[in-house]
Write a structure and sequence with these properties.
Structural class: alpha+beta
Shape: globular
Largest sheet: 5 strands, mixed, barrel
Strand content: 5-15%
Radius of gyration: 24 Å
Helix content: 55-70%
Number of strands: 11
Bound molecules: flavin-adenine dinucleotide
Distance between the termini: 43 Å
Order of helices and strands: HHHEEHHHHEEEEEEEEEHHHHHHHHHHH
Number of helices: 18
């Protein structure tokens, strides 16, 4: 059976020592965040994830969700009780606003907790995770009336939320939405249509489920300019907050799928269901994007989480399993064979996993801090810079984080050899669960296009220029320090490749937009390497300072420096190859006629 232990030491290192959360004490909500409190949140949430959620991961996967004849959905054994404990402990309310019953803590802490919950049990964590996104959309665009009616219960996780975009004919291209909304005399709308693949669309964890639904008003403009957002509760809510009649929304089926079996993926039928407009008519996509941006960072954390739990179990197996002898001669001659850990190729996979997970954790938590700064920083300029960085790095965390996260779960399965392919050992579940994160919330190809097509150009290139400058200044300040110089040079070189690739797009994508599409995914990965490089430089600097002082934890900081070196040696060289792929353009990629692909 696989095991999970939340990597709390590493999170505390990033939050307290690298990001120095305490130094942001002047921001609203940060003042009370002494390292003691931060540590308590990190440790207790890690304990909850490991002790309550992880034990339900394999059983939830084996059992899955079941739908009754009446359309009700039952979650696997133990999920209801785990959700009750999760709710009562307040893990879902951490960074929700105090005004609606949340704890008002920074997002950076919320992200740390989200990683643990998802690593322990991704299918479970999605139920409250989606609710966070729905809360963000209602906070930003809901009327005071809607906010008063729904937010306190949603923030308390007494009601959970969903997002309903996808329809059979409409996936990536939301302009194809057909679900209809008809205005009613009382100011509400009648919603009619079918949504598919709706995560947590129906379940037995809460008395009510609050659906956020994209639909089209009759006479609305074609395409994405004619889409509106509605809040549609499963059970109608009376003015005094009590539950009323059942709304005309039901689960028509649940999908049988590759992974996350314990999360109900539902076909949702809206048969004239009563809904209320969120924000303005025909501006629904902008409102839904608030939810999707929050959710995209959450999905990036899923990539991290599955890579982390798979790494822990890959590392354990590499220590326990004995096969073959070390190339340099028997490491443990008294035993019939050496542990897998002696083999450089096994080490390669383990070190890749470490360099990626620790780097991505730092990146995600840093971006979590930028989310806070984008709202709370004292000056407009600081808020703008933080917001730019969040916008730029969201597709990187989602796309690079989940591509590489999935690859890490495959590598860790590989360490288990044939035993990794056998279901009862649990490694294949990590692979199956991690796979969806590359697909939903905008497939990763769409993330890459978002980065190249929208984020690079936004604000006249302000965000990417700020990012380049950040990396350059970090490299410049590190180059004179012996422990950091080699890594700094490598990251600087990777940053130069990213700059060159950006320039190449500027010169070649306007004349032929396919050049942007053809280079988008390599560019996303190149940006991921540079972003992780920035984080590794910062972590290495912190570790070197700690080692120069009087630390009790030498092994931890030494391992950071070694992993930073490995990152420099093994991740940054890919930057040059990725740039060359980008600069080869779209010509050969797009040259074959459509008939050449007709295979059947
Ligand atoms: C388990 C699961 C849970 C889900 N949960 C939800 C949910 O809660 N709510 C919800 O609304 N949806 C949900 N979805 C739907 C999911 O978001 C969509 O599957 C996804 O957005 C892609 O849409 P599609 O499947 O129709 O693929 P398509 O849009 O048909 O795309 C197929 C492929 O073509 C590529 N592609 C399409 N258009 C372009 C383009 N313009 N440029 C480049 N490449 C392109 C895509 O990247 C993708 O790789 C879920 C799906 C699954 C499987």
């Amino acid at each position: 059976m696989p095991s999970y232990k939340a990597p709390t030491r590493d999170t505390r290192f990033v939050v307290n020592e690298v990001l120095k959360l305490e130094s942001h004490g002047d921001l609203p909500g940060f003042a009370e965040l002494t390292p003691d409190i931060v540590d308590a949140v990190i440790e207790e949430s890690g304990k909850f994830a490991a002790e309550v959620l992880a034990p339900l991961n394999a059983s939830g996967d084996a059992q899955g969700c079941t739908r009754g004849a009446d359309g009700s959905v039952t979650t696997p054994a133990g999920f209801k009780e785990a959700h009750r404990q999760f709710r009562e402990a307040g893990w879902g309310t951490l960074s929700a606003p105090a005004e609606f019953g949340g704890q008002g803590m920074p997002h950076v802490l919320g992200f740390a907790v989200e990683e643990y919950m998802s690593a322990a049990n991704q299918a479970f964590a999605m139920y409250p995770g989606l609710t966070n996104g729905a809360v963000s959309a209602l906070l930003a665009k809901g009327s005071p009336d809607l906010q008063r009616k729904y937010l306190p219960k949603m923030v308390a996780n007494e009601w959970l939320g969903t997002m309903n975009l996808t329809e059979p004919q409409c996936g990536t291209d939301l302009g194809l939405i057909r679900t209809k909304a008809e205005p009613q005399a009382d100011g509400s709308y009648a919603i009619t249509g079918t949504k598919i693949f709706i995560s947590a669309g129906e379940h037995d964890l809460t008395d009510n489920i609050i659906h956020l639904v994209l639909a089209r008003l009759s006479g609305a403009p074609e395409g994405t300019k004619g889409i509106s957002l509605f809040v549609v509760p499963k059970v109608l809510v009376n003015d005094d907050g009590t539950l009323g009649a059942r709304n005309a929304v039901s689960c028509g089926a649940i999908e049988h799928k590759m992974g996350i079996h314990a999360n109900a993926t539902c076909v949702m039928n809206y048969d004239g269901a009563t809904g209320w407009l969120v924000g303005e008519e025909n501006k629904g996509l902008a409102a839904m994007f608030i939810m999707m941006n929050a959710a995209r960072l959450g999905v990036g954390l899923q990539g991290l989480s599955q890579a982390e739990v798979a790494y822990q179990n890959g590392a354990r197996y590499a220590i326990e399993r004995r096969q073959g002898r070390a190339l340099t001669g028997p490491a443990e001659p008294q035993e019939p064979a050496d542990p897998l850990l002696v083999h450089p190729d096994v080490r390669r996979m383990l070190m890749d996993a470490r360099a990626f997970t620790e780097g991505l954790r730092a990146l995600a938590l840093w971006v979590g801090l930028q989310v806070d700064l984008a709202h709370l920083a004292p000056s407009e300029e600081e808020r703008q810079t933080a917001d730019d960085l969040v916008g730029l790095l969201t597709p990187v965390i989602k796309g690079y984080g989940t591509d590489r996260g999935f690859a890490t779960t495959v590598d860790m399965q590989q360490i288990w050899g044939g035993h990794g392919y056998i279901a009862e050992n649990g490694m294949e579940q990590f692979v199956r669960d991690a796979r969806i994160a590359m697909i939903y919330e905008g497939a990763n190809g769409i993330q890459a296009m978002d980065l190249v097509g929208r984020k690079l150009a936004a604000g006249g290139g302000r965000a990417i220029r700020a990012f380049f400058a950040l990396v350059d200044s970090e490299c410049a300040s590190a180059k004179d320090e012996a422990a950091l110089a080699d890594l700094a040079q490598r990251v600087e070189k990777a940053n130069a490749e990213l700059k060159a690739a950006t320039m190449w797009f500027m010169q070649n994508a306007m004349t032929n937009p396919d050049n942007a599409g053809a280079g988008a995914t390599p560019y996303l990965h190149l940006a991921g390497i540079v972003a992780l490089g920035l984080m590794w430089l910062r972590m290495a600097k912190t570790a070197a300072e700690a080692l120069a002082g009087d630390t009790q934890d030498k092994a931890f900081y030494q391992a950071k420096l070694t992993t930073a070196r490995y990152f420099g040696e093994r991740f940054t060289p890919d930057a040059g190859a990725l740039r060359r792929k980008i600069e080869s353009g779209a010509e050969a990629m797009m040259a074959l006629p459509a008939e050449a692909f007709e295979t059947v």
